[in-house]
Amino acid sequence: MPKTYDQAYFDKWYRSADHAVRSPAELRRKVAMVLGQAEFYLGRPVRNVLDVGCGEAPWRAVLRRLRPGIAYRGLEASDYAVARYGRSRNIGYARFGQLEHLRFDERFDLIVCTDVLHYLKPAEIRAGLTGIADMLEGLAFLEVYTREDDPGGDRDGFQARPARWYRGAFGEVGLMPVGSQCYVGPTLARRVAMLETCVSG
Length: 201
Known about the structure:
Helix content is 38%, strand content 18%. With 201 residues, it is of the alpha/beta class. The longest helix is centred in the N-terminal third of the chain and has 19 residues, at 24-42.
């Protein structure tokens, strides 16, 4: 039976004291870290964000608190989340693989995709990554857990791939790792010193 990303799912994994694995304080620290990384490489404040697989868009409030006026766009494949929060939080319906063809009239200073890829099939990941690389102006934060990790949380449908698989898939579309699950695309790669990267050489 396929998973249903309804209100009960989000209540359990994001709000329940017995199941939630991330605290609001941890989210604030994570968003601040990612913004700092992006702005370091861009050389200016982040102006717009694309949040792929955003769920109920918890990043939106933190981003807007840290950077008032930032433009936020979320994409989510949960009918519940889009129906409930689509208008108020600027969330549109899309599956990750649709990023192969889905484009907007702008490129994004920051693209976020957290806790999504390790539930998807390889073909969908590779298709969607082409869109992320094409739309990326600044930094991508692609939070993924691998066979080598023990992240806790929802294990239903978790694909335990080795870290090297993701490194290869990201590298195929020109995403360069700069630490803490952050990646720059070809536009900013020339600004990255070799010892800032997480690649050998």
